[in-house]
Design a protein that fits this description.
With about 160 residues, the chain is of the alpha+beta class. The protein has five helices and nine strands; from the N terminus they run H-E-H-E-H-E-E-E-E-E-H-E-E-H. Strand 8 and strand 9 form a beta hairpin.
């Protein structure tokens, strides 16, 4: 039964930005809804989106998801959406203010980490992130390799 629940949880994950955790230190995360059109949500459910170059921006007291590519819906007609349009993020006013204050610092940005479905609605996990330097990235890779070696050695002794 536990496998069914885990599988259902994985089925809800539509896209993930793996490169974000490599390029940034994630300081804090927020869950936000996304205002999508009819053909966009159908493309999201078909997992036809890319978060790679995406980011979020606060403008006029509203949060927007920028540069996230959601492919056109294959069965769409003339009312199909623009793949790179800016999408409004649905957050509470306090969260938007907190995000605006957090991004005032130099080198801090908001990146989308995951897109998933929750109760039938598309949600985005946003990360307030600070850019890593090249030597930080190498240090992270080195630490991960060391952890793998340790786990391999411990596995033989069990």
């Amino acid at each position: 039964m536990a496998k069914k629940k885990q599988k259902a949880k994985d089925d809800n994950l539509m896209a993930q930005n793996r490169k974000a955790r490599h390029d940034y230190n994630i300081l804090q995360t927020y869950e936000a809804g996304v205002a999508l059109t009819g053909t966009e949500i159908k493309s999201v459910r078909a997992r036809r989106l890319n978060l790679k170059d995406g980011f979020a921006q606060i403008r006029n007291g509203e949060a927007y998801l920028m540069n996230v590519h959601i492919s056109e819906y294959a069965q769409g007609n003339q009312f199909n959406h623009d793949p790179l349009r800016n999408r409004k993020l649905l957050l509470h006013k306090q969260e938007i203010k907190r995000l605006a204050n957090d991004t005032q610092g130099k080198g801090i940005t908001i990146v989308p980490l995951k897109v998933y479905l929750k109760h039938g609605y598309a949600k985005v996990l946003l990360g307030v992130a600070e850019g890593k330097r090249e030597y930080d990235k190498r240090e992270t890779i080195k630490r991960r390799d060391q952890d793998r070696q340790i786990s391999r050695v411990l596995k033989h002794y069990k």
